[in-house]
Write a structure and sequence with these properties.
The protein is mainly α and 326 residues long. The protein is 57% helix and 3% strand. It has a domain at 9-229. A two-stranded antiparallel ribbon has the order 1-2.
Length: 326
């Protein structure tokens, strides 16, 4: 753990938008401990939402938009993108920019969120401070140019309030769902209001916090703890705990070895539920050109070669072929 923060990070200058949002949402999350805001329906909505909206990040932002490991019709792609936006992890282009930068400089000093700085930095601290490169116009042009050719993503960048419309739009939807569901059991207005507020608390706020930490754990825990199938030239690890939370993403060393692939399952027991869901989309005619693991693209490696010899860096032109710098 010896890296300084990346040079473009301005020392002690908070990114007030990100820092205030993260702190405020976490403070709101403590209201979940109020008995008034508890309900089984809200809790179930939270669990379902963690998977549904989390896949907006895993399948949408990550495997589809960042690595282009499969293709979908635009309406499916944009639906995944909206689910990602509702997880409050920034616009698709900005998320893609940071992640592609991470792959190009993984665990080197320019990496935006390497745990070689410290655990807190990789988990969430990197979001708290101004980084002149990650969200700059030049950074977006360099690492997310392909997304910005799509008017849908460009509108999200040129109209900063549009993503907030998606985010805040969740609140009345969840409230109405809870308010309406209450009348299946009781006609009392107070009970309906309580269930509506519970749905907002658990279905939106607690779910957003949970998806945040699940996603951030890939950056932190999966670069610090676990085992390695491949020597990839950086610190990625396969972490079973993160893999369970992220339905696959925790097999992170596998991903850094073969970032182009739509799957991170390299051993039979390294289950990748996200890949199974992508294959289901393919069966339904909603996905195509699903990229298999490298051994299934090119055949088995010749005997005696280090399975991680190429590593992520040598594969960057394949995995991020839309990124000029890769």
């Amino acid at each position: 753990m010896a890296n300084p923060v990346p040079p473009p990070v301005i020392p002690l200058r908070l990114n007030w938008t990100y820092a205030t949002t993260i702190v405020l949402v976490h403070l709101l999350g403590f209201l979940a401990f109020m008995p008034y805001l508890w309900s089984w329906l809200g809790f179930i909505a939270c669990l379902v939402g963690i998977h549904l909206f989390g896949q907006g990040i895993t399948i949408g932002y990550h495997r589809l938009l960042t690595h282009r490991s499969f293709k979908t019709p635009k309406w499916i792609e944009h639906t995944f993108a909206i689910l990602g936006i509702c997880s409050m992890q920034d616009t698709p282009a900005r998320w893609v920019c940071v992640h592609r930068m991470h792959h190009v400089h993984s665990d080197e000093i320019p990496d935006p969120h390497s745990p070689r700085v410290n655990f807190w930095w990789s988990h969430m601290g990197w979001l708290m401070f101004v980084n002149r490169e990650t969200y700059s116009a030049a950074g977006l042009e360099k690492f997310a140019k392909d997304l910005l050719r799509d008017p849908f993503y460009m509108r999200l960048e040129t109209n900063p309030f549009l993503q907030f419309a998606y985010i805040l739009g969740q609140v009345p939807v969840y409230f109405v769902l809870g308010f309406g569901a209450s009348f299946l059991f009781s006609s009392e207005l107070s009970a309906a209001t309580q269930l509506g507020l519970s749905m907002v608390m658990w279905g939106v706020i607690v779910r957003v916090i949970a998806v945040w930490h699940i996603t951030w754990s890939v950056n932190s825990l999966s670069h610090m703890y676990g085992y390695r199938n491949y020597s990839t030239g950086e610190d990625s690890r396969n972490n079973w705990f993160v893999a369970v939370l992220t339905v696959g993403e925790g097999w992170h060393n596998n991903h850094h070895e073969d970032p182009s692939a739509a799957t991170v399952q390299h051993r039979w027991w390294e289950l990748d539920i996200s890949y199974y869901e992508i294959k289901l989309l393919e069966r339904l005619g909603l996905a195509k050109d699903v990229i298999p693991a490298r051994q299934n693209r090119h055949g088995p490696r010749s005997g005696g070669r280090d399975p991680g010899e190429a590593g992520q860096r040598a594969d960057s032109s394949e995995s991020n072929k839309v990124v000029d710098a890769a």
